[in-house]
Amino acid sequence: MKTIRLAHLYPKLLNIYGDSGNILTLKKRCEWRNIEIVVDEINIGSPISEHDIYFIGGGQDLQQIEVSKELYKHKNFLEQERDKGAVFLGICGGYQLLGHYYQPHIGEKLKGISLLDAYTIGGNKRFIGNVTVKTELGTLVGFENHSGQTYLQGETKPLGKVVIGNGNNGKDKTEGARYKNVFGTYLHGSFLPKNKNFADYILELALGEKLEPLDDKIENITHQSLINKAY
Question: Residue 211: what pLDDT?
Answer without folding.
Answer: 97
